[in-house]
Amino acid sequence: MLSVNEALSYKEDAIGIGRKGTIDKPYILRAPFWTVDTLFYAVPENNNNLNFVYDIFQNIKWKQKDESTGVPSLSKTAINNVDVLIPDYKEQKQIGDFFQDIDHLITLHQRKSFLIMISS
Q1: Where does the record place the Type I restriction modification DNA specificity domain (predicted)?
Q2: Do 20 and 71 form a contact (C-beta atoms < 8 A)?
Q3: Nearest 5 degrees, angle CA 20-CA 22-CA 28?
Q4: Which residues contact 22 (CB under 8 A, 6 or more apart)?
Q5: Nearby residues of 90 by Cβ (< 8 Å), 6 or more positions away
Q6: Are 35 and 8 contacting, i.e. CB atoms less than 8 angstroms apart?
Q7: How far does Cα 104 stand from its chain's mean position?
Q8: What are 64-120's pLDDT values in tens digits?
Q9: What is the pTM of this model?
């Protein structure tokens, strides 16, 4: 990889997923973002909610799509061949927001547990 002068997205958030190594740990990329050559990213198209699509990415068994004999690897073809059923945007947003709220609550409890642990 050489150098990058501009972000891949300045306005739209996306989902990042490892092309090599951590292929089973997708995460949300907040704009602006840049990537390296071992990371794919997916910007949800119109009428698709980022949090809902992220939840889908988290529930795909990516390691079963591993195409390597060594370091776990994914290809665009393997990712594009994943079929999913997607409800309308309103339902996606409700589901995505619900899971985002749960993730936030889990994070708060983890922080609280950590603070209790280090103060003991």
Answers
A1: 9-112
A2: yes
A3: 110
A4: 72
A5: none
A6: yes
A7: 15
A8: 998 888 888 888 888 889 998 889 999 999 999 999 999 999 999 999 998 888 887
A9: 0.76
